Amino acid sequence: MELQALAFYVFAAITVVSAAMVVGSRNPVYSVLYLILAFFNAAALFLLLGAEFIAMILVIVYVGAVAVLFLFVVMMLDINLTELKQGFLRYLPVGATIGVVLLLEILFALGVLGASKGTVAELAAKGVPVSSVENTRALGRVLYTQYFYLFQAAGLVLLVAMIGAIVLTLRQRPGVRRQNVGDQLYRRRDKAVTVVKVPTRGGVR
Amino acid sequence: MDLAVKLIVFLPLLAAAIAGLFCRVIGDRPAQFVTCAALLAAAVLSCWVFVRIGFGPADQKLVVVKLSTWIGSGTLDVDWALRIDTLTAVMLVVVTVVSSMVHVYSVGYMAEDASIPRFMAYLSLFTFFMLMLVTSDNLVQMFFGWEGVGLASYLLIGFWFDKPSANAAAIKAFLVNRVGDFGFALGIFAVWMLTGSVSFNEIFAKAGDFAKMNIQFLGMELNALTTCCLLLFVGAMGKSAQLGLHTWLPDAMEGPTPVSALIHAATMVTAGVFMVARLSPLFELSQTALAVVTLVGAATAFFAATVGLTQFDIKRVIAYSTCSQLGYMFFACGVGAYSAAMFHLMTHAFFKALLFLGAGSVIHCLHHEQDMRAMGGVREKAPQTFALMWVGTLALAGIGVPVILGHGLGFAGFYSKDIILEAAFGAHSTVGFVAFWLGILGAFMTAFYSARLMFMTFYGKYRGDHHTWDHAHESPPSMLIPLYVLGLGAVFAGIVAYNWFVGDSWQAFWGKSIAIASTKEILHHAHEVPLWVKVLPLVMALSGIALSYLYYVKSPDLPARTIAAFPSLHRFFFNKWFFDELYDRLFVRPSLALGKALWKKGDVAIIDGVGPDGIAAGTQGFSSVLSRFQSGYLYHYAFAMLVGVAGLVTYFLLAKG
Amino acid sequence: MATGIDSWTLARPEIFLAAATCLLLIWGVVRGERSVNLVSGATALALVATAALLFLPFREGTAFASLFVVDRLTATMKALVLVSSAVALLMSRAYFEKVGAWRFEYPILLALAALGMMLMISANDLMSVYVGLELQSLALYVVASFQRDDARSTEAGVKYFVLGSVASGLLLFGASLIYGYCGSTQFARISQALLEGRAAELGVVVGLVFFVTGLAFKVSAVPFHMWTPDVYEGAPTPVTALFAAAPKVAAISLLVSVLMGPFKPLFAQWQQILVAAAVLSMLLGAVAAIRQTNIKRLMAYSSIGNVGYILLGLASGTEKGVQGVVFFLAIYVVMSLGVFAVILTMQRQGKMVEEIADLAGLARTRPMIAFAMLLFMFSLAGIPPLAGFWGKLYIFMAAIEAKLVIPAVLGVLCSVVASYYYLRIVKVMYIDEPGVALDRTPIGVNAIVAGVGAAVVALFSLLPQPLGTAAAAAAKGLFP
Questions:
Q1: What's the ipTM?
Q2: How many domains does chain A have?
Q3: Does residue A119 fall inside a structural domain?
Q4: Which residues in chain C are closer than 8 Å to A101, comparing Cβ atoms?
Q5: Domain with A29 in it: what CATH number?
Q6: What number of C-beta contacts closer than 8 Å exist between A and B?
Q7: Cross-chain Cβ contact C163/B634 below 8 Å
């Protein structure tokens, strides 16, 4: 139990610090790398909660796909750091104040700070029903039955994302050579070659 | 009877509507025809009604035609109703006859004007309002007519609206009348407060109960009825141009001459006298109010006559004379001789309308020249006008032989003016005495200045430019016929009507339409005065004319020498006792200054500055501030959202914790 | 209710729209750009057909394991969303053809956004709320930057996207708090948990604050409105027209069903939030618009102000308040689509213009259009007896009955201030001298939409009763 608590605090601390570094780091590539670190630790926290499926999804999707994509984008863009950082210090005090106030307020409301009834601890004591089936199986059972509707709707969200991505980026430029598989497959011999009888010493006209 | 009364009142309105609203469609001639025909018909009907009412049996001397309910709100009930009794019938005849004559006269006088239909429509409209006034059955309807004639008067004085002086005069007339009307309105409120009614019958029935009642106002103990009467009298002063509120009348001469004849001589200005006579049962109950009426009337009679001595504008002379004659009527009312006042009102309407129209004829003849200094010898060019003007002048001066044939023999003004003076003397009171002597002096001056007008205009040599003289001509028949009709009135109205109005059969004639008790007493005393009282007015009138002849025909240098002898007195009279200047200093300039201060400082600086403009400017400023928040930077926006969330969370934490 | 055939029947309009959209998408992909007119026409038709399916026949109940609910209010709101989306789609063609961005994805995205709005409206579970919200938001982010070669359009899209994501984050955080305290995401269970005492807990209130904040962003209530002017101005005008109408309806409807449903026990708390947001929105909408010169930006502030009135009606928490909200929304949608239709007819020398000053002299060059605009402006200003006046009247009456007298008075005052800029537009159209006259474009869809909008406004002005009855029927369901 103590080990679990220790692990929680370690992972949580690293998550918070690396999240801060995402914002604070001077080099955007470092920022993305810190982001990946934060994701890993968050995944570890999920593991500690016994949510192994989400932990794995987090690693695969966020670390494997999203963050790496971010990394590529950041490396390919020419970002002027000084310009980006301008105003950072100027807005830091007021921004930080609001952030800290909000954080403290939420902590207070949740009963972590100060005395308030209905604290998180109380809720946790009640306990989330722990089922004997593992995460993945449980998800699989409800995803296509109870939450079928949400699954379909989420599919539509992805469809929109796809259409959006295409519509905002796909450009048909004239004069660009591109592969057309259908054309290639349907290409017949008589369209590609003509057999010409070349007279001797006459050359091709 | 009912139908006739309705026709009398509404025919002019109908004619005004036709001429006024369709003037562009129907043109000049039909407009003149419609209005004149309507008025002549009304005049004929009025005479018939007058005979039926005035000489009918005692129980048929009051007819009330209810038209509809006007206001019915709580205890306030106001009807549209036409009340016809002898008093009204007299006024109906005076108004419709003079008005129809003026209509006919206008056809000739205004022939060259550009907007004839408008003029005819205004005249008819005025007549309608005047008839509404005289036939009213309650104070509110009377006020309606009262304001209506004020409006028509405003429109007609300012008829030539391209003349700045005409506009100024119109506004002045309207404003001065507002003062009087305000008093009248307050008087109506007070009467309603006292008696709970505005209907004449009910007021008169209840008035006696309140005669001794007092009211508190600003710590003063006032007799309720006296206050009512005085407030109402303020209204009468305004409309009838009595001393203090008279300043608009001379200026009103800026209007076309037929207007002056109709409105500012014969009818509208007499509305005040009519009102006092109509409310005589009320005034009867307050000796204080009557004394005030007497004094104001006498003072006006004297004041206006002194000013009339010095004026040069032919119409202004007559205007002051009107003012003066109205003063006679008021002091007749004041001493209780209401029938005498109405008598004089009637005769005056004829001869004063005659004088005005005659003056109009002269003006027409001389191409709109009004200054008597530029006239003279006009009798050669306009002999008929000349003769008729003499008739009017003699009637105004009150020439006649007293005592013979019972009541004497003379022009219309002779009878009515003499009975007024006799009544004032016969009142045997201090105010009556004052009024009598001021009236005698006034009679002398009246004779002097009316004869002066005649001599300066018609005698001697022409003093204007020759071009005008060469084109001078006698007026057309459409103008002369009314003059003859009115001339007949000026000669015979007195002889014919004396007996009914103030003679032996007055009681049978008037019925209950005026206060009987005091009239009876005062007429009795008036007939019993010593001989010298009856002769003195004639002596004064004759000597006035003789002196005038001396001054303006025999030795024309006398006026200048007299002026040189009494320069300050002349200046005082010539400048109309400095009333205009006084009012300018007392009211006009302070009002302007106050208005300007309220406008610049109060309205623009404070109300607008803090109010609409200030708020608008503040809103605009606020708007700019808000626009500046809209910086376009994403992180600002996101930050604003976070601040919003933080604010809400903080609020709930504080509210709960 | 149970899953199975019931669910499919209840969700038939949504399923129909999704299927139709997918078919049209495939058609568009196969046929390429040639199909754009056909796809857009068919999409508009599909939207209208879906609206018809809602009521032919009308059924109510919950479906898909209580994730989805249909009742009179949701059906009414969905119909409003679908019709306004269809109208916005019809208004788009001329504009996009002119800027060279008329592509078949546009109608598809619009249809998917409408579908997302329908899911939002029908949500009966915090998860359905989120999915529906994301579906419509994502589609709208894309259409906002649909004119992708235009810097302002792209900027609008990015801004909307980033801030929308922040709002989604807030909403999710709030939802997770609520789930944490109430133990369920289902509306009915949340309501039950709150009634059983969870309502007293601070964490729930904080969750509510975050959740409502997320929705307040969608309806652009102050202080979560900052995106609105920029996005309205930057987005292509037909898209702005859509933004001003359909998503507002959906988000308001969602607010109504969430606050009147599961969070009813927290009425005292959310009333305060709504009153604050309403007053601030009315104030900002009235004041900030005064300085605007761009008519789209002006309409953005106008929509903020109008949302303020709607929130005020909602804050009353009574049946009458909801009735007022539905009534006001319906009229507002008509007016705002009409105004944008007028804006879309404005061209000068072949270019679209959108400055207020460009309207100068419109009354002389195009009197009918100017008159329609005058009607919309007077109605927006709430001048009796126009439809907008009745809407405000309902709202203010409901607010006063709910003892929100001061906010109601403030609302009236703001309405007075706001009438300044509405009337200024009328003044510009009718009194100002035109500079270079606007083109006399032939009567197209937009002119017709403006005309029909004006006719509808006029109709509602003279006969507000039927709409009021319909709104009352829709509101009744929430107050059994």
A1: 0.91
A2: 2
A3: no
A4: none
A5: 1.20.120.1200
A6: 23
A7: yes
